[in-house]
Amino acid sequence: MMERVLGPLPQHMLKKADRHADKYVRRGRLDWPEGATSRDSMKAVTKLPRLQNLIMQHVDHSAGDLIHLLQGLLRYDPGERLSAQEALRHSFFTRDRFSRY
């Protein structure tokens, strides 16, 4: 589900995974959890939209800042992920969208 919504795991992270990661990763992709491999489960996950499409279903089309913020917060690699301070300085929070009210 994570890969479907957020995209594949970065290869550099998969290469760093230890031998116990085989339980969770198969052929460079996240493996299905035990007990969750029914056809219905797989079908439901394959129907999930990507993150930006998921957001666009629920907010107006000016949600670019929100999408960018969430993508930054949900990055797999902690070194690339936005910190709390960076997130609070993001244009989603700092732009002057309320000035007309």
TrEMBL record:
InterPro entries associated with the record: CLK_kinases, Kinase-like_dom_sf
Annotated transmembrane regions: none
Keyword Amino-acid biosynthesis on entry: no
Keyword terms, alphabetized: ATP-binding, Kinase, Nucleotide-binding, Serine/threonine-protein kinase, Transferase
GO MF annotation, one: protein serine/threonine kinase activity
Coiled-coil intervals, chain numbering: none
Keyword Glycoprotein listed: no
Superkingdom per UniProt: Eukaryota
Assigned GO CC terms: nucleus
Descriptive protein name: Serine/threonine-protein kinase afc2
Species name: Phtheirospermum japonicum
